[in-house]
């Protein structure tokens, strides 16, 4: 049996190409049991960061599958 899990990951990037993250700014939230909870956390992180107007900060939702013991 498997279960899908979700994380919100991101941080500050060196520039607006978003190819290299600034060390020490990484953030990971989760795991979340469903995508809607992850989306709520993503919305909160994105909204909070818009108040500080940082154009080089980005968050995404990542997902993965875990195998549960029978």
TrEMBL record:
Name the source's superkingdom. Answer: Bacteria
Return the Gene3D superfamilies for the record. Uncharacterised protein PF13773, DUF4170
Q: What is the protein name for this chain? A: DUF4170 domain-containing protein
What organism is recorded for this protein?
A: Sphingomicrobium sediminis
């Amino acid at each position: 049996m498997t279960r899908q899990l979700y994380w919100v990951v991101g941080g500050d990037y060196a520039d607006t190409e978003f190819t290299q993250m600034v060390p020490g700014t990484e953030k990971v939230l989760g795991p979340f049991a469903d995508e809607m909870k992850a989306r709520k956390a993503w919305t909160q992180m994105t909204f909070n960061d818009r108040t500080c107007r940082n154009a080089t900060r980005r968050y995404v939702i990542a997902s993965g599958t875990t195998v549960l013991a029978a």
